[in-house]
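Model the whole thing, not chain by chain.
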Amino acid sequence: AQTVTQSQPEMSVQEAETVTLSCTYDTSESDYYLFWYKQPPSRQMILVIRQEAYKQQNATENRFSVNFQKAAKSFSLKISDSQLGDAAMYFCAYRRTFGNEKLTFGTGTRLTIIP
Amino acid sequence: DVKVTQSSRYLVKRTGEKVFLECVQDMDHENMFWYRQDPGLGLRLIYFSYDVKMKEKGDIPEGYSVSREKKERFSLILESASTNQTSMYLCASTPPPGGLNYGYTFGSGTRLTVV
């Protein structure tokens, strides 16, 4: 069974600085998707970034980028120029490309932005 | 803008009551999901559906059932609510994978308290 591990329950960063959130996963599949979701206090889960395992290039969305290490089964999220609005729970998630579309989530990292 | 709507944001029910949580999506998505979110445990899949009248058990289906009579609506049913079902419930939907904007769209959650 696939598992997703986020080993940092809480992190904090100074506004305008850079922070990296860690995620590792375990799977025997070769084709899959990885996601980072953000959940602010409003509770709405928002897709931050998506990576397809067959793509070697790391995904980037504005200030958000990932470091995808397929052999190491690692998928970290880097947030550059942190802003107050980045404060939220961040969840790493996995789903295999073929078969049922179940998303497997990590336990989340709560990110605090220090003004 | 695509939407997943959950009928209640907060709900308080008594032990033993039958509880219905409703979810509606306006994106014509085939796949719909019910997750439960608890602190320190992340999101765990209860049930999912990949077509009308089709359903599959997730990781924690005990004490729950689902109904999908129409493509846009996916209901979660607690047959006899218990205090250990006090939690945040999140509904999500997704199209088949492969599109440019592939990802899950979540509702804003229902916080259920069973007393």
